[in-house]
Amino acid sequence: xxxxxxTKYGDPDVLQIQEQKDPxxxxxxxxxxxxxxxxxxxxxxARKGLYPDAPKAPCVVGYEVAGIVEAAGENVASAMVGxxxxxxTRFNGYSDRLCVPEKNIFTIPASLDFEVAxxxxxxxxxxxxxxxxxxxxxxxxxxxxxxxxxxxGLAALDIALHLEATTFGTASGQKxxxxxxxxxxxxxxxxxxxxxxxxxxxxxxxxxxxxIDPIGGKNWKKSYKALRSTGRLGMFGVSxxxxxxxxxxxxxxxxxxxxxxxNPLGLMNVNKSVFxxxxxxxxxxxxxLRGWMQDILDGIEQGWVRPHVDRTFPFDQVGDAHxxxxxxxxxxxxxxxxGV
Length: 340
Known about the structure:
Layout lengths: L1 E5 L8 E5 L9 E10 L2 H7 L16 E9 L11 E5 L8 E5 L3 E3 L6 H4 L3 H13 L8 E4 L5 H12 L3 E6 L4 H7 L3 E4 L5 H8 L5 E6 L4 H8 L1 E9 L12 H11 L5 H7 L2 E4 L9 H17 L6 E6 L3 H9 L6 E5 L3
Helix pairs in contact: 3-4, 3-10
C-alpha cells in the first residue's frame, strides 16, 4: 500500500508518499481499497506540529475515507466484501489501503460517488454535534456560522436550514453568491465588516441563539458577545493559530493569551453557555456516532444533506491540496483521489 507521511513538521513539502506492506484486518476489522480521502484542517495543524492529538512525526493522518471493502476479518460477515463504504478513521486515513473496525464503516448511499461520500463523515458529524446534540438549535432560532464556506460550515448550513433557523455566516466576499444560492440568509464579509456589529444590526441588538466558531483566540470573545440571552457558543477549532509566522511554542503561547476564560457565575448572570466539540475524542462513543451518522445518511435520502466537493486532487498532489486549503480558496470539501 501507499501512504502519505508527515515526515517532519513544516510546509506542504514535508508530505511524502511511502510504500508499506498491505495490512491484514484483525477479527473485527475490514480492509478498504480506498478511492477517496477527505482532507480536514486538523490534518494541516498536524503537519505544522500544532495538533496535540496527532501522533508525533513521522506519522500518517486522516480521519475519513471512502472505498470498497476488499477483505474482512473472521468476525465480519463475508458479504461485506465488495461493498462500497465510507469510514471514520483514527489517523492513517492518508492511505490507499486501510483497515478499520467494522463499527466505523457505513454503506454509501447509491446516489453518491466515492468523492462525495468522503466529504461526509467528519464535517457533518461535527456540525450535527454542534447544532443538534449540544447547541439545541430549533425552528425560529438564529445561528452564526463562522467560516460558512468551509466543509463544516456548509454542513452546518444544511442542518440549520433543515431545522428552519435563520442563518448568518462569515466568509470572504467572493463566496457570498455561492452561499446565498445554498440558502444562507445573511452572509457577512469578515475581511471588510466587523461581524459583531453586523450581527447586532441585523438582529436589532438581540444577538443569536447559537454561534459555532472554529477560529479561536480573540474571535471566541466576539462570538460570545454576539449571543443573545440563552445563547450558546460552540467552539470546535483554533484555525487562527496557523496565521502566525512565529515559532511553534510562541504560536501556542499567543493562542493561550488571546483565549477567553469563562466564569461560571458570569455565565449564570447573563444566561449564556459555552461548550466545546472535538470529534477525535468521541471514539469511545461509537453508538452515538453511528446514530448521528444514520440521521445524516437519512438526510441524504431526504435531500437536505448536500455535501459539496470543491475540488479533488490526485493522491500525489496532497501538498497542493493542503496549500489550497491554507489559502482559504475552497468552498466546501477538498478530497484526495487515489486512482487505485
